Automatic annotation (TrEMBL):
Name of a matching Pfam family: Glyco_hydro2_C5
Region described as Disordered: 829-866
Lineage, broadest ranks: Bacteria, Pseudomonadati, Bacteroidota, Flavobacteriia, Flavobacteriales
Name the record gives this protein: Beta-galactosidase
PANTHER family: BETA-GALACTOSIDASE, BETA-MANNOSIDASE
Domain Glycoside hydrolase family 2 catalytic span(s) in chain numbering: 321-457
Residue span, DUF4982 domain: 634-692
Species in which this protein is naturally found: Flavobacterium palustre
Domain Glycoside hydrolase family: 716-806
Record domain Glycosyl hydrolases family 2 sugar binding: where: 52-188
Domain called Glycoside hydrolase family 2 immunoglobulin-like beta-sandwich: residue spans: 217-316
Amino acid sequence: MNLKGLVAGVCLLSLSTNGIFAQIKESEKVKYNFNYGWKLNVGEAEEAKQLNFDDNKWTNVNLPYAWNQAEAFKVDISHLSTGIAWYRKTFQLPKEAADKKVFIEFEGVRQMGEVYVNGTLVGLHENGAMAFGLDVTSYLKPYPQENVIAVKTDNDWRYHEKATGSTFQWNDKNFNANYGGIPKNVFLHIKSKVYQTLPLYSTLKTTGTYVYASDFDIANKKAVVNVSSQVKNETPSAVNAQLKVSVVDMDGKEVASFLGDSFSIGANEMKDLKASKALNNLNFWSWGYGYLYTVTSELLIDNKPVDAVAVRTGFRKTKFEKGMVYLNDRVLMMHGYAQRTSNEWPSVGMSVPAWLSDYSNSLMVKSNGNLVRWMHITPWKQDVESCDRVGLIQAMPAGDSEKDVTGRRWEQRTELMRDAIIYNRNNPSILFYESGNESISEEHMQEMKAIRDQYDPFGGRAIGSREMLDSKVAEYGGEMLYINKSAKHPFWATEYSRDEGLRKYWDEFTPPYHKEGTGGTTHENVNGTKVVDASAYNHNQDAHAIENAVRWYDYWEARPGTGDRVSSGGVNIIFSDSNTHYRGQENYRRSGEVDPMRIPKDGFYTHQVIWDGWVDTDKPAAHIIGHWNYEKGVTKDITVISTADAVELFVNGKSLGKGKQDKKFVFTFKNVQYQSGAIKAVGYNQSGKEVCVDEIKTAGKPFALKLNAIQRPGGMLANANDLAIVEVEVVDNKGNRCPTAMNMINFDVQGQGTFIGGIAQGPDNYIGSKNLPVECGVNRIFVKASDLAGIIKVKATSESLKTAELSIKTNKTDLQKLSLAMPADKLPSYVEKGPTPSTPSFKKTRNSVKISEAKTDANPADAAKSFDDNELSQWTNDDGSPKIEYVLEREATINQVVLKLAGWRSKKYPIRIFVDGKKVFEGVTPTSLGYVTLDVTPVKGRNVQIELMGTSKNSKDINLVEITGKVDDAGLKQSNSKTSQLPIVEVEFYEPIR
């Protein structure tokens, strides 16, 4: 079911014989696309608010359009242009709008927006993050008179709230790319004087329609669908009102129709009307299964329809307990990306057509990510709805920076969270509300939870914050870089693997021969301080992909099924390279698994392999990192990422044996000599059966160019805003991509479109240039449609290579200033992963053995803190003997001891472990991102003693230095004791499954 079909049931009203109500006509609409026909002026123009101002010399633009978007990826985030810009639009209301209510909805203005209608200021919005709406009824002139709307915007980084003088915490140069003006969609709503309100609280003080499901029976595909809609009566008389609800599936079939109770609504009164019904044969929304329904709530007054609201939503069941996330009764380990909310692209910033949001977000799912944690700022509604369609779970923040705040700045955060929840609570893909990018006080967490409980009590969403490891209020948490485990609320890492790697750099053996760590220590932070040595973060594709796999292993090792305390996963920062703070010699963040034009890096395919499953691996897979087009004489290590139990490597059919597995998923083959031909990796299970294979073949010499268009499903729109991606490859005479090609490509665009450009390493990152090189044999550019339907012709040339040409057809669409064509019309859902499987998502690997008490002569009052399921508490021996004994609840054959020792990433501890007096382990603990698993000699007993044998040693095995130069102490506490310390944050004991 497409959104245009949805809106067909949401219709404009005409007057009835009593002067108030009439039947809704199918041909009339209450919601218009208001994006077309704007004019833009960058700079001060205070007179532009006046009705009769002459804007003929202003630039014609269609929204969404940020006035500085052409700078995206060209300049450092802190250098994006700021200042005043004005937008104006002249339009007529439809004839049928006489005596109706008219509202304008902005999905967002950055940072501030003053809205004038026919010369009068009607509203001000300043937070730069959230949607807002205005009642413009009394300021508009009826048909056929013309109306003028003017919007003054100011995207100053230092913008201060007019009423209080306060800045906004999230207006931050580190992460909040500053695309100014009106970078998001605008809509016009025309409604009866008795109507269902809009979910735009901060300016209209209304909450709209709330749709949710309850009483789930997943196995039998049943649930109760509930609708609660706020209705406002702006007539002088009371009315009798009720809701009539229709539920339509994705095939356009009505699966239910039902009525709510009738209520009297007094003059100028608002009241929530409700309706609900139990439905059968439901398709539940799931990961990679964006199944959506259209729920239309029709408002009946005296049994006559006067207003209708169509909500595109999905139904799913959630639960958050035992340290795990449940979706539709199945445990799902979180694995995905911490993505900058701007989600931007070269030369166009964030203001892309809705289909491009789907394209980008669906790539996260296709890499086997299931969660996107938007960072710091509440996401654009277009991305929220896109995640619904592609089946990508979201963690939705409100707005913050890196710490808790007080006073007006905290009030701003709560107001933004309130508005974001009301606006987005019907979107099934949101499973988490994030109250802070760093821990907040329990009092503040309780305030945020109260907002959730008031406005979204039935949405099945956990509210929490980064960290909050010992919170009694937060419903989820998790640190930024480390592995956390819990037996209660789920903990997942909010960002890990912060390393960077440019797509251009294959390895040290391929031009331009990028060695590990080179580049990235010469620029300054946005506050002017020098960036600390970032060599540990600067990778080529080989090393970056390997690092991603190595980092994930620590989370996978603590996955559901491994005990009573588990990790619920984590999100890698970031998915696509971003025009935000960076550690490399380029002026943008290169941590992505795809580059800014969404061309996959090797990390993309690495995640496809290691994340293939809800918890356990669904299907074994393998990926050979790199290419097979080296110069003669090159000998290098080959790495294969695989979920198989063993991997064998073949070069031109000759076996090089099985790979060494230092960490699960990572198989290394040392000193492989390059030979033109084919390299193949074969994965085997524990029985020696072949379960997966990957092969790379040598490409021939560069021969020709090849073009391919990636465009909107159903074809490109001739609306002067739609974009198509044109991919160019350098190929050999058989059509195979040449992976080491770096040829310069010259583009020519003719017909009903214009060249926008792409990105590559070089001057100004080649932003806007019609001549840019391929990297690793491929690159991409944007072309933009004109407002006339026709053909766009793209020609690519390069010296000594065969020319390539491509034609793209653009299709006529509704370009009226009040358009019936919505930005997301006819965009399909991604459903390739299918419904939630009914089988268990994991197989239990071991049994945990609970601890009844701990005995120690050193600091005994804190002994229980070493097994209290609180990672912010610990036991250490202080001045006493570094020895502690645990009494188990029952006798058990202990074969594994899991420890979280303070300083886990920088300290190695020499320890001995005894079970009932028998030594089962003696050695040095490794460094980790949290927990270490020690395999011990299996011994049956009930008393386990752990003792330190000497002084802990410092290690630099894990180098994680923040941009500021700060190194986290990882739980280490200062001590004046001269005794060697054994600081145990958590300890766990395990026995094999019987």
